[in-house]
From TrEMBL:
Pfam families: Peptidase_S8. InterPro entries: Lanit_process, Peptidase_S8/S53_dom, Peptidase_S8/S53_dom_sf, Peptidase_S8_Asp-AS, Peptidase_S8_His-AS, Peptidase_S8_Ser-AS, Peptidase_S8_subtilisin-like, Peptidase_S8_subtilisin-rel. The lineage of its organism: Bacteria, Bacillati, Bacillota, Bacilli, Bacillales. This is S8 family serine peptidase. PROSITE patterns: SUBTILASE, SUBTILASE_ASP, SUBTILASE_HIS, SUBTILASE_SER. SUPFAM superfamilies: Subtilisin-like (SSF52743). It comes from Brevibacillus brevis. Residues 155-469 form the Peptidase S8/S53 domain. The active site is at 163 (charge relay system), 198 (charge relay system), 421 (charge relay system). Residues 1-24 form the signal peptide. Keywords: Hydrolase, Protease, Serine protease, Signal. Coiled coil: none annotated. The keyword Protease applies. Belongs to the peptidase S8 family.
Amino acid sequence: MKKSLKLVLLNSALVLGLAASVLSAVQAPVQGKSKETSYLIAFKKESLPDDFEEQIAEAGGSVETVVEDIGIVSASSDDPDFLDKLSASSDVLAAEKELEVFLDEEEPDAADGQPITDIPQPDWDDPDQNYHDLQWDVKRVTNDFASHEISEGNSKTVVGIIDTGLDFDHPDLRKNADEKGSKTFVPGTKDAWDENGHGTHVAGTIAADGKVLGIGPRLTVRAYRVFGATGGAQQSWITNALVTAANDKVDVVNMSLGGWRWMAHNYGEKGDSASMVAYHRAVQYAVKKGVTVVVAAGNDSRNLGDLHDMREYWKETYGLDIKGPSRVVPAQLPGVITVSSSVEWSDDKVAFYSNYGNPIDIAAPGGDNGPEYDELYREDPKGDYLDKRDFRYRTLSTWPTYLPPYFTSNLKGYAFMHGTSMAAPKVAGIAAVIKAEHPNYKPSQVAALIRKTALDFGKNGQDKYFGAGEANIYEALTD
C-alpha cells in the first residue's frame, strides 16, 4: 500500500519528507499565527551582505533564521509584496515562500498484518537477554557481527543525525548518545529529545550497544533535531542543522529524509530556487569540512534518473502536471552517498518501495513486508494487500522507551520499521567505522572504500538498483 500525502497544490512547490515507509510529507507555505508568511532567501554570495537585515526590514520582513556560512536566511512578513520588494535587490539570488515538511505516520488498519507479539519484553535487569538474532540486517552488513571483533568504532568518531531527535536515556544508547552536544532547531523546543521515534530508530542502527547492536557500538551519535512530535521542519532548519553539524566537526551526517523537487526552467523571476541553492550549498559546505553525508534514496518506487517516470508518477498519483526538470533532494545532490534499500530474502531485488536509478551509490538493508507482499505489489501496486504484510522482514532497532510501542509489535523500547530511512544509517555507521580506522580519510575516500568493498548484488557491476552493491563493513575493514 502506498503511503498517503495530504497535498497542498502550489504553482511551484518543494515536497520533502522523512524517507521511511512509515512517514510521508507535504510541503506548504509556512503560515504564522499572525498570518505572516515565512520566506527563504538565498543571497548571491555565500557571505551575507552587511546590510541584509536592513534590506529585509525595508522590504517589510523580519529575520527568523540566519545560516551565515552559506548566505541563507529565512524571514517572515505579512506584506503581500515582500517577495517583489526583496527580489529587486541585486544581492538576492533567489527568494521564495519557505516550505515545511510534515510527518504523516502509517496507521494500522483493521485488515493489516498482525503485530509481532511473541518476542519477550525487554528485561533491563537481565544483561544476557538480547535481540541480536532478530537483527538480520545488521548481521548481514557486519558478517554476523564479525566486524565488531575488528573495529566497533570509537567515541571520538561522531555521527550527526538530522532527524526527530534521540532518546538519550535508552539503555542501548545512553553510553553513546551525546546529549550535551545535541541541538534542536525546532522553535519552541529546548532540547533534542525524540518525541516521534524515527531518530531513535536511526541512532540504534548506527551505534546501539545492548539488546540490539549497531554497526559501530562504540561510535558517538549526536542529534540535530529538525522535527517535532507532530509538526514539520522548515527548509532553513534542515539547512542550518547540516551547516551546524559541519561546524561542530562531526565525521558523518545521516539524513534519512528526502523527497521530490521539481523546478520549471524559469523558476521565479531570477531563475533559481532558494531551497535548491540552500541544500546544495549546505552539502558542499559540509563536504569541504570533511563530513561524509549519507542520505536516503526515498520511498516512491521511482527511477530517479528518468524524468518521464517522475512526471508520470506525479500526474497519476497527485494530479500534478510538472513542467521542466525534476530531481529528488538530497538524494540527487552532488557530494552525498545515496542509499537504496535491500531486503532480507533477495540479493536480486531492492525493496518494493525503494527509489532507484543512476543517482544510487550503494544499497543497504532497509527491510520490507516479505516476498509474498512484494510479489503482489509488483503485479498491482494499487492493490490492497495489507493483510499480507509480514513485519518480521522489517528491521529491528531502538525506539523511545517513553513512547507507546510502534504498531508493528508490542515491544517497549524497540520497533520493527522499514524504508530507505532504515537503509541509510547502515551506510552512515559503516562510514563512521571507516573514519574511526582512517581518521585522515576525506569523504571521497570513505565513499570509494564503501563502493569498492560492497557485495555485488543484482546485475554484475554497477547497476541502477544497488549502485555498487550492498555495503559491508567487514569487507571494508579487511580490504
